Structure formats: C-alpha cells, structure tokens
C-alpha cells in the first residue's frame, strides 16, 4: 500500500503546499506586470510661453440704442386727417408725417387776417385825422401872432392834436395785437402738419386716421406713447456700466469693438464719447456711452451686443494658452516639465486676449507648459513631451 494512502494527512499537506506555491508564483508575475504599467511614460503636449504686446480690453454686454428717439405728439387739438407714413418707413428731416384736421385753423387764419386789415384801415383813417389836427394847430400858431385867434382857440387845437395822436397809438396797438393773433393762427395751422424733427425710421404707429389728439397730451409725454415713434439710427449708442475699480482705465476717445448677435462674424468700431462723472449708488458703477457710426443702418435699436473697450497695452507681456491653466478654488496653477517629470507651479494671471492669458507671477518664460494631457498628470509624474503649435489668437483674427 502506498505511503500517501497510509498517511492521508501527509498527502493533504503536500497538496496544500503545491497550491500555495502556485498562488505565490502567480501573484509575483501579476505584480511584475503591474509595475511595468506604472512605469510607462505619459505623452503630453507642451508649448513655450510667448512674450509679446497684449492689448487690454474691458468686456461688457449691453443693448444698442438709437442716437435719438422721439415720440411724436400733436401741438394742436383735432382729429387725425391723414397719416403720411407708417411703421418701417424712412423719413427725411421736416417731412410731413401727420395731418391734423385744419379746417378750423384755416378759418382762424382768415379771421385774423380780416381783423388785421380792419385795424390797419382804422389806423389809416386816424392818420388822416392826426394830419388834419396838426394843420389846424399850425394854422392857429400863425394866426395868434397877429391876434386873429384867441389863446383858447390855440389850446383847443393843441388838445385835438394830442387826442388824435393818442387815438392813433391806440389803434396801432390794436394792429400789433391783430398781427400777433394772425401769427398765432398761422402757427396753429402750421402745427396741424406734424413734421419729422430729424431723419430716421418710424418704429411705432399707435393711432389711426380719425383718432382725436390733444395738445395737453404733449405736456405729459412721458405718460403717453404718442402718435408714432421716430428713431435716428445713422449713429447708434451703447451704454455700459463700468465697475468702480476700472473707472481710472476708461477715457473719452478710446476705441471700442462691438459684436452683435445678428452679425456674429462682423466687428463694428466705435468710440467712447461720454462718461457720466458719477456712480450709481445702488450698483457702484459708472455709465459710459459708446457711439458707433451706422450709415448702412445694419444695427437696430434694441439689439443685444458684446462690447470691448481697449484701455491700454501691456508691452512684452508673458502669455500662455488659457487651456493650460488649472483652477482649484481661488488658486490657479499650471504643470511644467522639469527633468522629465510634471511639476505643479502656482501662477497669478492678468489680462486675457483671445486664447491667451497673461501670467504676472510664477513663470520665467523658459518653461515647457503642459497643455494637452494636463488632466492625466500630477506633481512628479514622469512624462515624455511632444511640442504643440501655439493656438491662434482669436482676437487678432477678428480684428483682421
């Protein structure tokens, strides 16, 4: 009989020993493979920092507004007789927009003319009486020398002359009043033809022919929409709110670039024209106005726009691609390659320009900055590098 059969415990021990041996060998071989994977190098894309001038822009979002907006009201009472324009029409300066029924105003002009003619006729009649009183007075002065008339007769002639002169002045004053009344009647008649105060587009029409309008509405124009609304968009303006820390950077005459949602591939050029020299107490911002020429009238009032104001240039600024920057809470950092390993370097960033960002602290400009693969490494990871082309400057392309 076999010895293993006679000693079963010996057989069991041998089997267990062989199993443990196989397991150890397998673990050792598996560990060796794992170590091989851990030592495999990661390939990362790197770029070198740039040193070049960097234009500093302040970016804002705002609505485009017409250069001038006016709600058209009537300065006289009456019914709308005719509308000469409608929404969307372009009008010239002084062009007739609306006619108010002017029948009564024409009658008033005719009546004022008649009154003026009558008053002038009375003045002419009184002129004759003044001349006659003057001749009588002169005659009396000649006759009294030879004592052909009494002093009383001379005094009466003088009184008549003065009375005739006073009556003439009174009638002349009435003529002046009639002239004023005629001028007012003619003005009211002219006001019944409502004209455009400047060239522009009719943006709204709120009333129809036959509607009654009142001159009293014009005095409370902020509470009413008016007959129609006229917009001047040959020049448009944008109002931006500048935060307090940026106020020293903004000056009249600085250039600005505007991009509208309607024209995503076009950049419109403008200029800072007005600065409100006071801050809004609620927001602690200051309003700055930017004017843009718009002769082709492509920009419309109410459009949404993104605006960048160029406030200066940082000469020979150190710049890296913005994609190379990592953020952790309030800290910004990049990975650089030193002696074949990734190394984390904390940096401070400055202004942005397209796809690049200015580095104000942390880099010397001679490093290899990891851009591609930065999320696969940590401080001390062995890497092998592959140079990448510098990303294009989006802002420069848009200017071109």
Please give a structural write-up.
The chain is 32% helix and 40% strand. It has 400 residues and is an alpha+beta fold. Among the domains are: 43-54 and 314-399, conserved putative lor/sdh protein from methanococcus maripaludis s2 fold; 60-66 and 233-313, Elongation Factor Tu (Ef-tu), domain 3, CATH 2.40.30; 102-191, Helix Hairpins, CATH 1.10.287. The protein has a 6-stranded antiparallel beta barrel with strand order 2-9-12-11-10-13. The N and C termini lie far apart (100 Å). The model is unreliable at 32-37 and 396-400 (pLDDT under 50).
Question: What would you say about this model in short?
Answer:
The chain is 32% helix and 40% strand. With 400 residues, the chain is α+β, with helices and mostly antiparallel strands.
What are the main properties of this structure?
single chain, conserved putative lor/sdh protein from methanococcus maripaludis s2 fold, 6 helices, Elongation Factor Tu (Ef-tu), domain 3, six-stranded antiparallel beta barrel, elongated, 400 residues, Helix Hairpins, 19 strands, four-stranded antiparallel beta sheet, alpha+beta
């Amino acid at each position: 009989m076999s010895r293993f059969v006679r000693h079963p415990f010996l057989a069991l021990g041998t089997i267990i020993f062989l199993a443990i041996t196989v397991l150890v060998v397998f673990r050792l071989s598996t560990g060796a493979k794992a170590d091989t994977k851990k030592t495999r190098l990661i390939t990362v894309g790197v770029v070198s920092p740039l040193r070049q001038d960097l234009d500093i822009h302040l970016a804002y979002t705002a609505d485009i507004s017409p250069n001038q907006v006016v709600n058209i009201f009537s300065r006289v009472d009456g019914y709308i007789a005719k509308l000469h324009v409608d929404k969307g029409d372009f009008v010239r300066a002084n062009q007739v927009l609306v006619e108010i029924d002017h029948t009564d105003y024409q009658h008033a002009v005719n009546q004022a003319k008649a009154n003026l003619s009558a008053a002038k006729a009375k003045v002419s009649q009184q002129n004759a009486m003044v001349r006659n009183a003057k001749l009588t007075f002169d005659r009396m002065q000649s006759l009294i020398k030879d004592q052909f008339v009494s002093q009383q007769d001379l005094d009466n002639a003088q009184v008549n002359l003065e009375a005739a002169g006073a009556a003439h002045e009174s009638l002349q004053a009435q003529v002046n009043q009639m002239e004023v009344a005629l001028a007012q009647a003619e003005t009211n008649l002219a006001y019944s033809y409502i004209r455009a105060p400047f060239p522009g587009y009719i943006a709204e029409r709120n009333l129809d022919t036959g509607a009654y309008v009142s001159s009293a509405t014009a005095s409370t124009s902020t509470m009413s929409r008016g007959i129609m609304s006229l917009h001047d968009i040959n020049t448009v303006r944008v109002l931006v709110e500048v935060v307090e820390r940026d106020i020293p950077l903004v000056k009249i005459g600085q250039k600005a670039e505007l991009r509208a949602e309607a024209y995503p591939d076009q950049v419109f050029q403008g200029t800072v024209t007005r600065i409100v020299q006071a801050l809004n107490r609620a927001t602690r911002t200051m309003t700055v106005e930017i004017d843009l020429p718009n002769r082709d009238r492509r920009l419309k009032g109410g459009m949404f726009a993104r605006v960048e104001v160029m406030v200066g240039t940082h000469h020979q600024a150190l710049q890296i691609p913005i994609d190379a920057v990592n953020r952790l809470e309030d800290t910004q950092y990049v990975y650089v390659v030193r002696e074949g390993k990734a190394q984390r370097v904390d940096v401070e960033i400055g202004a942005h320009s397209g796809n690049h960002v200015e580095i104000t602290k942390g880099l010397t400009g001679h490093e290899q900055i990891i851009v591609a693969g930065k999320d696969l490494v940590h401080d001390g990871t062995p890497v092998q590098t592959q140079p990448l082309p510098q990303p294009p400057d989006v802002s420069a392309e848009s200017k071109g």
